[in-house]
Model the fold of this input.
Amino acid sequence: SQKIEQNSEALNIQEGKTATLTCNYTNYSPAYLQWYRQDPGRGPVFLLLIRENEKEKRKERLKVTFDTTLKQSLFHITASQPADSATYLCALDSNTGKLIFGQGTTLQVKP
Amino acid sequence: KAGVTQTPRYLIKTRGQQVTLSCSPISGHRSVSWYQQTPGQGLQFLFEYFSETQRNKGNFPGRFSGRQFSNSRSEMNVSTLELGDSALYLCASSPEVYGSEQYFGPGTRLTVT
Done:
């Protein structure tokens, strides 16, 4: 069956360091992959979208890579700040309009 | 532009009752999706509507239904509520048919007692 896996354990890092979050998937051929941020009690907020024919995408301090051979996406936040503390969700779509989300990874950036 | 709005924000219902949740997408967005979020299952896809037609459906029982109106506003209905239906219900709208980011509303927190 289709499966999306994100680090279930919280990621704790020091302010200023680079946070790297992982999203692995199986039995899936996504046309594109998205990353969202969710704060407690709020709806997810879109961050980045990367298509299957793209290897890397950047937006300010954010970078996402997409390796369809390894079936993996990495999400990086450089120069992390306490305000980056949140849960980060990856989501996949096979170009059907149906987004499937991972469970999310909670990031805690300590000052 | 105003964001996605959902009403009500909070609801408490009793087992066996039914509930209707409402979603107003961002102006100009014709695709509306609904999700259920619980601590145990995470964010799960319920269904997606485009131009008043349900295009996709997740793995939920028939008690969960929805519809979309000509102005793109959407409603979802849950009949014969069960305790396990307690969750945050999120609506999201999208500007494109496929391959586009989704804009989420604040959600409706449903508690079934």
